[in-house]
Design brief:
Blueprint lengths: L20 H9 L3 E6 L32 H15 L4 E6 L9 H12 L7 E5 L6 H10 L5 E8 L3 H6 L6 H18 L16 E9 L6 H14 L3 E6 L2 E2 L3 H7 L8 H14 L5 E4 L9 E3 L6 H15 L9
Parallel strand pairs: 1-2, 2-3, 3-4, 4-5, 5-6, 6-8
Antiparallel strand pairs: 7-9
Helix pairs in contact: 3-4, 7-9, 9-10
Bound molecules: iron/sulfur cluster.
Length: 331
């Protein structure tokens, strides 16, 4: 019997024992959906001096070749590239670079409206920081969610304040949970209380909240990474992105790595810790990412991460070997 036929994890139609982004989107929108990354030219409070300077030590955001090009051009390129590979059911304009809630209300409204009205857009995706969600931003998110479903992605990376200091994150876990709490409260008022009969709850959500974490941050061991996963599990986000820390050319982390001050994770460690984290995350949380893609030509280490399919296959095999699945040990 095929592994998918004996898979005990219910939010899957394959051998995957965690909720993949593909499965989530297929179930919600009836087909594969392509995310189109956009750079709207925003900056970040962690770079312009309002929270910090220099940015997080691994960050290359805002240095892509898309900077300066119109949103429409970037979107068309993304749609063309995705459509060459498969026939998407629709697209998600993804305001990805830097902090996409960090501007005045007029600018945010203009850019979010432009992005969300792109042809074929099924959902608007906004990446930001939890300390950049003032009242006017929350009101704008609520307003936009009236015309298109919105996902808001919040970078946490680690719940350990010592690590946050080491990576120059310039916010504490308490500040993160404060912003996250306000966003969740808003989502709870906007999202329908009960899903329509026979539908999964997430299909009706107008506002979806996603939290990013990174494995392999400097100074972290398995216990610190597990604490982050448990802290995130307690927040019950709709989605989680699990990233592997990449050393990218031109970053502060590269300098640390080249001087011997940082050692990346091995693939075995990554697979093992990620499976431990999946076990404690809620079964109903979509795992929107389980590794990560380094920008073309920028990866310095770890080079094993280029073999993304190998990593995801190893995670599948490890969960199967353990007889485990996402949420098996969730509280
Ligand atoms: S908060 Fe995000 S955009 Fe800002 S420096 Fe850190 S990783 Fe880069």
């Amino acid at each position: 019997m095929a592994q998918k036929d004996t898979n005990p994890y219910i939010y899957s139609d394959s051998n995957k024992r965690y909720m993949t982004y593909d499965w989530y989107m297929k179930t919600r929108f009836g087909g594969k959906v392509a995310k189109v990354p956009l750079d709207a030219g925003f900056t970040c409070p962690n770079k312009d001096g309002s929270r910090g300077t220099g940015g997080c030590i691994f960050c290359l955001a805002g240095s892509s070749s898309s900077r300066g090009r119109s949103l429409a051009e970037q979107y068309e390129d993304g749609v063309r590239t995705a459509s060459r590979k498969w026939k998407p059911a629709g697209f998600i304009p993804y305001l990805q670079a830097n902090t996409n809630t960090y501007s005045d209300a007029g600018t945010l409204e203009r850019i979010w409206k432009e992005a969300s009205s792109m042809q074929g857009a099924l959902m608007l995706d906004i990446a930001t920081r939890a300390d950049c969600l003032p009242e006017y931003v929350l009101s704008l998110i609520a307003a936009v969610s009236g015309s298109i479903p919105v996902t808001v992605e919040l970078g946490l990376q680690s719940s350990d304040d010592g690590t946050a200091g080491l990576i120059n994150r310039c916010h504490t876990f308490a500040e993160f949970t404060e912003g996250y709490g306000k966003l969740k409260e808003l989502a709870d008022t906007v999202n329908p209380e009960y899903p329509a009969e026979g539908r999964f709850a997430f299909m009706s959500k107008r506002i979806t909240v996603c939290v990013h974490i990174i494995n392999g941050l400097p100074g972290e061991d398995r216990e610190t990474m597990m604490k982050t996963a448990r802290d995130v599990a307690a927040l019950k986000p709709d989605m989680v992105k699990i990233h592997l820390l990449h050393v990218l050319r031109g970053t502060e982390l590269e300098r640390m790595y080249l001087s011997g001050g940082y050692e990346p994770m091995s693939s075995m460690e990554y697979v093992s810790v990620t499976c431990d984290q999946l076990e404690v995350l809620p079964a109903e949380t979509c795992i929107a990412r389980i590794t990560g893609d380094a920008p073309e030509g920028k990866l310095v280490a770890p080079l094993w991460s280029r073999k993304k399919t190998q990593v995801t296959n190893d995670i599948d095999k490890e969960l199967f070997r353990r007889g485990s699945w996402q949420g098996k040990l969730a509280r």
